[in-house]
Specification:
4 strands; 4-stranded antiparallel beta sheet; alpha+beta; single chain; elongated; Alpha-Beta Plaits; 142 residues
Length: 142
């Protein structure tokens, strides 16, 4: 009977430890996001993280006027921009491409992502992510 109590207490202790461990892991902020995984893939494919790389950011917005407003703001922040119509889209019928040369560091790309997401939200649009600019290897998410 004594062994049964020992196993029961040990099992309960293990269960409590797993609950606490999983709760702590769930509470930690996730730093393994899409931006960091994409940067890691580009680095592994041979892109030098210390040299600036052209990065093409994409936003979708509901009207040409809003696209032009965002493009003008981004040009003032050092981006090269172009606007394209998205004829097959029902809600976001215009696309803004914003190209900027920058180092492949996670913090810099996250800051640019946050800024572009904020701009898209202000006009009722959406941020559609980024990709390496022309001539760079593609490394999309798996």
């Amino acid at each position: 009977m004594d062994w049964f109590v020992v196993f029961l207490v040990a099992g309960a202790a293990i269960a409590v430890w797993r609950i606490v461990y999983n709760a702590r892991n769930a509470a930690r902020p996730r730093t393994d996001d899409w931006d960091s995984r994409m940067i890691e893939r580009l680095r592994r494919s041979g892109v030098d993280p210390f040299k600036p790389v052209d990065i093409d950011f994409f936003l979708a917005v509901p009207s040409r006027d809003k696209a032009e407003t965002i493009a003008a703001r981004l040009r003032a922040e050092g981006f090269e921009t172009d606007i394209r119509e998205l004829p097959d889209s029902l809600d976001q019928s215009w696309s803004v491409h914003a190209l900027k040369s920058m180092s492949l560091n996670v913090q810099g790309v996250r800051e640019a992502t946050a800024r572009l997401r904020q701009l898209a939200d202000e006009v009722g649009g959406r941020y559609d992510g980024w990709a390496p600019g022309p001539g760079k290897p593609a490394a999309g998410p798996n």
